[in-house]
Amino acid sequence: MSTIIDGKALSLSLKEQMKGRIADLEKQYGRKPCLAVIIVGDNPASRSYVRGKIKAAEFTGMDSRLIELPEYVKEFELLDVIAGLNADKAVDGILVQLPLPHHIDEDVVIDSIAKEKDVDGFHPMNVANLWLGRKCIVPCTPKGIIAMIESTGVEIKGKKAVVIGRSNIVGKPVAKLLLDRNATVTIAHSRTQDLAKVASEADILVAAVGRPKMVTADMIKPGAVVIDVGINRIMVPGPDGTEVSKLVGDVDFDAASEVAGYITPVPGGVGPMTITMLMENTIECFLNRQ
Ligand code: NDP
């Protein structure tokens, strides 16, 4: 039976520590770190993520601003809002919740955020600096994944790590962070042949795919550290016979936890750590700007 890596508890203890740090920063610099979050439209999932981010900011005691724009906002109007936040000395971090409506070019929007305030670490300069091994803002989900692996006490150095998924926001950056910590890293994707064999050789397995329970127990090396990034909503039979919606990861948790050494749950794993790392990145941007 594996040990559960409790992302919720780890997040809570990190956010508790941040409360004290933020109070100290306010004494030292005369103001608190401030995170600005922009949401465009009414996508329910995006609204829920944004609520979580603002709630976390309030918990830590940092300042936050929520800028809500209508679905039909023009690209230049959004860019104007970002330009205002870039120039605002009281704002340290700017996050534009993705995805954006189709008429807005996400790349143009990401490029327009001042790289010193790019708390998501998505700006091309931050991405380039990550791959060059230079100082940068590390994207929140990959940063949280590393913190969770490190929380187990399992050494990353020399281990075989397999990352399933090669997106710019999770798969690729987490692979780079594992490489930086001297793991031998394989990135698997939809065209990988014999994924089960590749995955089953991993001492550290990160699943960032978006396919419910696709990582089955036979794909896991006994004792491996398994990080489940996936957030998938599925319908399951409810208590009264009707179907209810349930959140599951990319890993078949019940079966996998019989084999893995350590495993993250969904919900309560990578999700809360992503938000907590956003708070850390906001503090880092604040300090960089002093
Ligand atoms: P993307 O859709 O951008 O990438 C998915 C990746 O999975 C792609 O590289 C794709 O391969 C690969 N893939 C798809 N099908 C298979 C398959 N059958 N076998 C192997 N690989 C496959 O997703 P994201 O990286 O943005 O997100 C992944 C999941 O993580 C989602 O469920 C998302 O909701 C969740 N997520 C959770 C976060 C959190 O905070 N907990 C944060 C961000 C994401 P290819 O490149 O070949 O198409």
Structure, briefly:
By secondary structure, this protein is α/β, with parallel strands linked by helices. 42% of the residues lie in helices and 18% in strands. β2 (34-40), α2 and β3 (63-69) form a beta-alpha-beta unit.
Strand content: 15-25%
The best one-word shape is: globular
State the CATH class of the largest domain. Answer: Alpha Beta
Helical content stands at 40-55%
Widest β-sheet, arrangement of strands: 1-11-8-7-5-6
Biggest pleated sheet: 6 strands, parallel
Number of domains: 2
Q: State the end-to-end CA separation.
A: 48 Å
Class by alpha and beta content: alpha/beta
Which CATH-level-2 architecture of the largest domain?
3-Layer(aba) Sandwich
Indicate the radius of gyration in whole angstroms. Answer: 19 Å
DSSP E strands, number: 11
CATH topology name of the largest domain, in short, is Rossmann fold
- At the fourth level of CATH, the homologous superfamily of the largest domain is NAD(P)-binding Rossmann-like Domain
| Average pLDDT, all residues | 97
Which ligands does the model contain, each kind named once?
NADPH dihydro-nicotinamide-adenine-dinucleotide phosphate
Molecular structure report:
The protein is α/β, with parallel strands linked by helices and 290 residues long. The protein has two domains: 30-114, Leucine Dehydrogenase, chain A, domain 1 (Rossmann fold), CATH 3.40.50; 140-271, Rossmann fold. Helix content is 42%, strand content 18%. The chain is built from ten helices and eleven strands. It has helices at residues 7-29, 44-60, 75-87, 106-112, 124-132, 140-151, 171-180, 195-200, 253-256, 270-289, and strands at residues 3-4, 34-40, 63-69, 93-96, 160-164, 184-188, 204-207, 225-228, 232-237, 243-248, 262-263. The strands form three sheets. The protein has a six-stranded parallel beta sheet. The chain has a three-stranded parallel beta sheet with strand order 3-2-4, sandwiched between helices. Helix 2 crosses helix 10, helix 6 (140-151) packs across helix 7 and helix 6 (140-151) crosses helix 10 (270-289). The longest helix has 23 residues, at 7-29. The protein is globular, with a radius of gyration of 19 Å. Bound molecules: NADPH dihydro-nicotinamide-adenine-dinucleotide phosphate. NADPH dihydro-nicotinamide-adenine-dinucleotide phosphate binds next to helix 10.
